[in-house]
Each structure stands twice: as C-alpha cells, then as structure tokens.
C-alpha cells in the first residue's frame, strides 16, 4: 500500500505509519484493533459512550475500505470539489481515511489494556475515577480526529462513493448512528423523529434485500441512505459540553430532517416505491430462504416502520379533511392487521406466507404514494381502490388463520357489563350530547348527527321506561328479557359509534341497531300494559337472607375485646346507651357479641335480656316477636297472634323500670331502629342496646356521639391457635404439619370465618395435600356457601352506583395497598361517579369510597393529615369475591397468567387487567379483546419493551390505559395518539409528549411514572380542554420532575380551565410563571419545581418573587428548589410543602399570616439560619406541622401559634435543642413523632406529654423512633461535631 510522507499529504501526519505496521495491522484489511478496543471498553459502564463511538468508527472504516467511486456523480448532491485531495488517487484517498480512523483505535489500546488487566486482577474493584480519566482521554483522541480535515474528507467519501456488494454494511452503519444519537441527543420528539426515519431506511433496505433484490437495483436507495448517514457521522462522534453547542447541533439536525432526511420528499418516495415494486417481482425462493434463516423479524420491523411513517404523517398535518383522515386511519388499521398476522407466521400455510410477502410490499407502495397535497386536498381514486383491495385480501387472510387463534370479531358474542346498567346508559347518553356539541364546533368529526340524535332521543325514552320497571323485572321474565334487549341494543349502538370515530365506518350495522332501538321504544308501552297487572298481583320480591343460628363458638384471643365490650355494657353513663360492634363479614362480630351477652357478669348485671336477628330485610312484627320470646317465658305462639301495636306495647311493659340489655344482630340500616325506638324506655338505670353491623357509622344515626367498636382481626398466633383447636381439639398439632398449618393460618389474614371454613376442608384432606390447599386458599374458602352468601349479601345491598366501584377493585393485585387518589381518578375516568350538586367529581368519588369503607368492604390503611384515607386495602376474601363477581358480570377480567390459548374469560370484555405483564404480548390483546375499553398492567419489577417480542398494538377503543412498569425507554408510545376515546393515560419514563397528543380530545388524566427528566409538553396541549389531572410520579428521595409547558403563543392559546392537579417544572422567572398560571385558573393542587438545567443564579434577587396569589382555587402547593426566591401565596391555601428553597427564617412570617393554612411541611434546606421565632397570632388554623432535615438550633413560639395543632413531626433536625414549652398548653395535640433528633428534644417532648396528662389529656401519643447523642468535641481523626449535617446523617443512617 502506498503511504505518503507527512509533508505531502495535505496536512495529514503519517509519521505513525511505522507504529501501525509494528502492530501487524494493515489499514486496508484489519479490524482487530477495533475489536480489541471494544473488548476492553465493554468491561465498565464508564466507557459506554466511548464504546458506541468506537463501534461507529469501525463501521465507517469498513464502509470506506469497501466503497467504490460512483460513476453518475452529477446526479448527486453538489459539494465543494476543491476540498477533495485532487492529487491523490482514489485508493490513496480511501487508505488515508482508513488509516486515520484506525489510528485512533490503535492509540487507545496501550491505555486501555493495563487498566483492563488491573481491573480483572483486583476483582473488579478499581476506582471509577481511573476509568473516567481514561475515557476522557479517548474522547479527546476522537475529537482530534475530527478536528483534522478528515471530517470533510469522510463526508465526501459518503457522497462520492458507494458499497456495491454489501447493503448490510449500510444497515449496520445506520444502527451505529442510531445508537450514538441516543447518546448525543436528549430524549425528545426530535430524537425520536430522526431515529424513526433512519430505522425506516434500514428496515426498507433489509426488507427488499430479503426479497432477493440485487444490489444494482438498490443504487438510488443506498445512495440516499449513505448521504443521509454521512451528514450525521461527525455529529455522532462529537461531544457537546455547553448549551450553545447543543443548540447548534439540534439546529443542524432540524435542518437535516427537513432537507437531507426528508422522507416525505417526492423523489425520495418515488425511490421507495421503485424498490418495493421491483421486490414484488423477485422469485419466492429468495423469500423462503430468508425465512429459513429466521429473518422473518425483518418483515415485522419494516411493518413497524410503516406504522411510524403514517404516525409521522398524522402528527405533521393536523388539519385533515374528514375523508382523508378516515382513509389514513383505515390504512393504519390494515398495517396493524398485517402486523398481527405476521406474529402468527409459524402457523400459516405457504399460500398465506406468500401473500404476506406481496401484501407488505403493496402496503409500503400505498403508504409511500401518499403526498402532502393529497393529504391536504383529498386522496385520489386509485389510492382508495388500493385500500379497498388491501382490505379484501387481509380479510381473507384473517379468516384463514382464525382457526389457529381465538380471534374475535368486535361484534361477536356480545356480553355487556351488568353492574349499574342504567348508570352506563346515562354515561352513553352524556357522550352523545358531547358528540353533538363537538360536531357543531368541529366538522372534522364527520359523524352523521341526525342518526345519533335519533338514537339519543329513543334511548332517553327507554331509559325512563327502564327506571319504572327496574324492581318489577325481577318477578317477570318478559320484563327482564325486554330490559336485556334494550341494554344490549344500547351497548351495540355505543360500540358502533365509537368505532366510527376511529375510522371504522359501520353505517349499515348502525342503521340496523337504530331501527332495533326504535322498535323497542314502540314495544315498551305494550309490554308495560300487558305485564303490570300480573306483577301487581304478585308479592314483593324479598332478597334471600343469610340464616345462621347463634352458636357458642370458642373465642381465641379477643379477651381484650370481650373486656372492652363488657366494660361499656356494665359501666359508664346511667342513660340508655348504644354499644355497636362493627366490622367486615366473617370477622366474628356475632360470636363476640354472643359471648359477651351470655357472660355471667353481664347476665347478672341486667334484669331483662333479649335478642333478635335483624338481617337485611325485616318486619316490625318479626323483630318484636323475637325480642319478646327471648326476654320472657311466654310461648311464641301467643306473640305470633298479636298485632304490631300490641306487641310494641307489650315489649315496653316488659322493659319498663328494668335494667335491660337488648342484642340486635346484623343491623343493616336505620329502619330497624326506627321500628323499635318507641318501645325502648330510658329509665336512667344503665340499660344498653348491643348490636352488630357491617356499617361502621350506622350508630351515628341513632346517637350522634356514639363510638362504634371496630372489631380487630386475629393476630397470626391467634389464627394458628384457632385452626389447631378446630382440627385437633386439645391435642397438639403433629410436628410434620406445623409449618404448613401455620402458613395456612397466616393466609387467612386474621379472619375467623376463613380459619373455621379452612379447618373444615383440612379435616377431610390428606395431610400430604395441605400444601395444595395453601396455594388456593381464597378460592377454596369462597366456594363455601356460607361465606359466599355473606359477601353476596353485602354486595346485593349496595346501591347500584357503588357496585361497579367495588368490583373495579378486582383490577388491583391481591394484598395491594391501593393509592386512593389513583383509584378515584380511575373511577371518574370509567364514568362510575355521578355529578353531585355542590361537589366536585373527586369529592363525590371520595364519598363513594367512604361508603364502601363504612360498609366494611374496604379497609382504610393510612389516613392523610387532612382529607381522609390515603391508601386502602381489600381483604383477600373480598378481593377474590370481586374477581369472581366481576368476571361473572362481564365487568372486568383479571388475568393472572398470560396464555392466550387457555383464556376462559368472557367474550369481548370491557376491562382487562394483567398481573404478570412481563409475560404479555400486547398485540394479542387486540386479537382476543377487540372491544377492550380499559387495560391495566401490573408487574413487581421494571421490564423493558423489546420490539420483536412484545409488539405494541393497542385495542383502538381504549378509554383507560395504564402500562404499569412496561418501559419504552424515553420515547413516547405513538400508537397512543390514535386512541381518541382515551380518558386516562399512565406511561413510564417518557421525556416528552408529541404534538399529536391533541388527537386525544377526551383525555382527563395524564400520568408519567418515574420520569428521568422534565417532561416537555407541546403547544397543542392547550387544545385538550378536558385535562384535569397531570401528574409526574417521582421516586422518593430523588430530584422532583414535572411537566414543562411551552411559552410560545400563549396569548392565543385557550385556557386549561378544568385542570385541577398539576406537577409543573419551570424556569423560575416570575414572568414565565405568571404566563402559565394565568392559563390554569382552576388548579387546586400544584407541585412546582425549578427546571434542572435552569440558568438562573442561585442567589436572591429582589425581583424574583414568584406569585401564586392569583390562583383563587389553590388549596395545596408544593415548592421545590427555588433557591433564594420569595413567594406570594393565595389566602385560601390549606397545605404548603417547601423544600430546598434556602430562605431566611424571617421570611416565614409570610406563611404564618395565611388564615386557612392547615398543613405545613418544611423540608430539607427550605429555611436557613439558627433560630425560628414565631410571632404571636401566626398560624391560626395549623393542624399538622412537619419539620425535616432543617439546621436550626432554637425555636421560639407562643401558645396561640398551636391553638389547633393536632400533629407535630420532627425528623432529622439534629441541631435543634428543644421544642417550645408552650406546646404543653395545646389542648388539641394528639401526636408528636420524633425521629433522629437530640436527646434534649426527646426530653422536652416527654415533658410536654406529662403536662398534657396533668391537664387531663390522655389522647396525646408520642413516638420516638431514634435519637442522636452529641458528638465528642474531638476525635483522633477529626472534629466530628464540625462535620456538615448531611455527612453526619449519612454516617449515622446505617
């Protein structure tokens, strides 16, 4: 090989040629230097960036080495011919470039090799700083490579030369570029757009090559691809250390996307169409050979790129004409169908496989035929005919594979959800009204308004009719059948209208359903007249009740409960009093009450004893007879003959002037009390009413100040004792069964009924099968008739509107602690919550939850400081009941193990939740559940989406989508923007929202879990008027992230006047903040944080006053990391959280003057200084105060600062010496929590507790988690007391 000297190579230094030769590496042939460098670089994560660049250099080296000069250069892009080394031969020029690229890798090896071996020999414990320094030097070498005129020469090579024999080399080059773009470009829409376009080029080359197309036929495509690649190489090999360099780089890429990598350009599209047309003519043998080499994923990748291309079109041109939008949506649907078919390729015959090859090419030709003008003005007839032909072919192909997979038509096996059917119809009618309003405002919807109005009018009439017969239908088969026909017609109408809105036109089907609804309207009066007479002659329907006789069960544990109830019955006030025992079904309320009722001390205390079983349905006559029979010795026959008035008088006579105890078992509502109240005299002699109920607050209707006794669950030890007693009596459990028996008792979760029922099962089960019982305990217990009836009774007694709310909890995992706010947002998005006058939907939804808690069906496991339950939980038995009932009612299908061929759930369910989402292939959902409206995925750990394995094809009618821990990297899942019915969307780790999000005009809740950066919002976000909840859920103890709103053209953008909750990231400019806040007039809960890369100085500026006082609805505000800023707060603020703001303590007076502030949390570094002096009269309504990780020493306060304080939390305030003594005068104080504070603080808190006890306040509880002792002043190593607080805290946490 001819190598020039350093003096005649146009500035190239070839003095290192001997060095190159000494390594026995020829620049014209060898890649061993790259391979060796890559081996070293792969050993440590610090080298990840360098490794990607070396891989790109290797690919460039191979390309330059193999490329040849183009002959028709005039047809290519112009460039400066003078920059080429015109004195060099073609081979020499390529050799120089190869040498320079190779030389960088060679020079890395001497530095990498010793570090690599030292790292191995030290058991991988080498300091990361050494790796960092080596990586920096390697990057410098690459920078020097680019600073030579190699940058221009290499770019010229990619323009002037091509590789005639190896298209895969071009494909590899593209993948290396994509890999490096992920490093260079921040995650966002720009990066995803560029990546998708490069992937399309790569996948198109791969597809047509797989079809057998010769390289000579790919010249234009490869030319275009390598020119695009050449323009990106220097960008991908560079570092961008400052903001200006990043901006220049992004500007350069924007220009490239619009010029050199513009795939919508006519000439580019013609090139694509040409190669696809040629590929169709290739012999099938090439395709078959590729499939034999397991290259079928290439087809799937190309189909994915076609879908991305269409999404790019949809996002680029928002103002489609209605027919054009429908056609593009239809094409997208056909591509979806093709992708699904491809997933089943191993089950397809040769004919279908060959069809797929042709159809994929046809779809590509059709897609690339779409021009911008056609999109704006209307597609030509040939495109429409192509779509029609494609639809027929795909329909045939789907039919051929249907027998291999449980494919379902959207209209087949129509099972509609049955809980709260009238509520669902109300929601549909409301949607029709909204559709009418949208159609008037925007003709792009393109829906036939007259047809929907006719359906709406007829359904309004039928809705009223169904309301009138909803009770009668239970006794009349014809009315029940009519009810079912109406509901099915309504659901079908809703389905067809929703399909029409996503481009699936079903005019004939909708006409037929419309006619059916009209006929039902005509039929309704006739049915009513014919059946009313018959119904009136029948007796009223009485739901079945649970009949269980009182029995003397042994109580295990609960001695403390017996003592408390006995104490309340026999002591205290002389006035007639009520003692309620409340709890969930099966908790042992009746057993406990019966034990107390029959206790000798209780029997002897009262003169008269009586009991009755109330249950769900009761009559006054029955209650009085039961009470009289149990309280006197007279025959029941005598009482049965008496009327209600005589019975009431008789009971009063029996009880008058006697101390009596009446036990009312299983009270359901206030009606039974109203029936008995006048018969219960109050002689001020200590009489008592003992009752059991599932309703926690029922007694408040009888006596407002009564306190229900909440029966606790058994402990694990008590459950095990009860199980042993039931199985072995007084004998010991055999040692071999002890471990599994104890495990089974724990699984009963403290529910005595579950323990008793499982004991009955174990008594008849072989001992070696107990493990199997443990695995399916909930299901086994639920099969018991007694348990099922108990839960069924609670469910049937719920109002209709609460039934779907309870069953929806089946969507969550067993034993999952459920976030209440998330649950309420889901209920609202599902349209379970009815608007209540004077209340927001969120407040109404919380009332629903409170009712379920009060009925002992849901457990509140943690309360908020202000505002009720923060988390809730279902007992396993209730959860299992909900899962079964939801499936039975076609309401929700919970899938615990994903095996699509073994699914036995309802056909076309509306809602699906998948427990083990890691096993799921989401594309299969579209096949099995085409009408799916809600999809919630669960998984204990994070898992990353793999394109070939998972295949994201989402059911197009989704209203609720929560992808759980499914990770798509930083990219937005573009398939989502076609889900026009979506109301609730929860994604993970994305960093931007695309402009096409505006397609989701019904979106209400947008959640991003665990974002790594602030989430960029597009300007189109202002067009989603329905948005009410926009949250970024951050990991604990990490920098908070939020949403970044665009500031451009805010004057002409509409307000988001329904937005209630927002996590906002801003540059802390008062002007920027005010511009955004003016657009959010209704926000009530706001978290606001400074942007991570904000250029603002961290020093206080007199102009930096961030004003929130214009938000008249704001109740809760969190502020993070606004170093040195001042704030103005609205007077209606109830909760304030501050962190990392570093204000002086003098500024806290602004907060102290807020008249409605109830919760204040001052967290790490929010205020600086040694002393906090509260002024008299500040914090007039403060109920909760939390101080955490603050470095103040002295705290002075007045008693009126704490006039309403209930809870004080001190955490990691290591410098604080004591709490204000005036806290001892606070009459409302209930809890003080101290964690990692000085011993002197703990002593002062204990003194306050003693003062409270001296005042008669025994309510105050203190919780001391740990305390710190003063550091010694000197140490042999250092003065530990002078360590910064954060370092001391780090040393002590372990």
From TrEMBL:
The protein's name in its UniProt record: Late blight resistance protein homolog R1A-3
Subcellular location field: Cytoplasm
Keywords per UniProt: ATP-binding, Cytoplasm, Hypersensitive response, Leucine-rich repeat, Nucleotide-binding, Plant defense, Repeat
Domain Disease resistance protein winged helix: start-end pairs: 812-881
A cellular component term, taken from the record's GO annotations: cytoplasm
Ranges for region Disordered: 1275-1294
Keyword Repeat: yes
